[in-house]
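Recall the central idea of this unit: under ordinary conditions, the amino acid sequence of a chain determines the structure it adopts. In this exercise we apply that idea directly, starting from the sequence alone.
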Amino acid sequence: MSDFSFVLRLIAETFLAIGRNWTVVLRITLIPLLLPIGLLVGWFTWAMKSAYLVRYLPKQVGGGDELPIFALALILIAAVGTLPVAVAWHRFDLMGEVPRALWPRLYPGASFGYFGRSLLLVLIAILFGICLMLPMYPLVEKASSGGFSFSYGALPEPRTGWNFVLSAIYFAALIGLVTRWSLILPARALGQSMTLKDSREAARACLSLKGYLLLGLLLHLFSILLDLLLAELATGYVGLLLVLPCVLLFQFMFNIALLTRLYGHCVKAPAL
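Accordingly, the structure predicted from this sequence is:
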């Protein structure tokens, strides 16, 4: 199977895995992720309608300049909740472990390990990002102020064709390189010991570097298309407020499910 065919198959499998198990997605995310976000949205709506939000505005504009501790706590809980969500999906898709909705398995050990490995991958991505940007910097078309912006899943600033090509190359290389080390995440969720070297070798045996660059490019372009589509719908489709949470949840789970599918192809998962 060619690299292109494998990448397309991987993306298709990921879409199908989420679509066929959407009820499982809701069960996994209900308590650790959706509940705190729902409470935050409800609190924010009430605070705006009741003028309670004024207490948190700066004193210069007549506010109370208070710290929104409740809102910050909900944001922190939702952020931490992404860890058991990822672990639960890895274990469901690779081991068949059925998640519980009202009393979810939080996997504290695996979640903390997942968090530590995620930080490690972030540091690797920052290092790679700097190394990749150094030779590109003189080639980037900059604004009159001398600045520019490359963001994953978004059009570059300034929006020129040349910057679009450079940003696509940049994120294709960055995502492609980092993905080869990312198998340590599902491995930790399954309780398996995997080093960065083990992850790279398993990933390399499954797909060539060119294939990972292609995967990174497609993910970047798909994210841009989704962002543009949502921006277009937001201008004339009131019902987007109902669709948007499902789209954002699907996008969040897609990244986790994609890594899960890749691990399933590269490494044999243990039996439950």
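The chain is about 70% helix and 0% strand.
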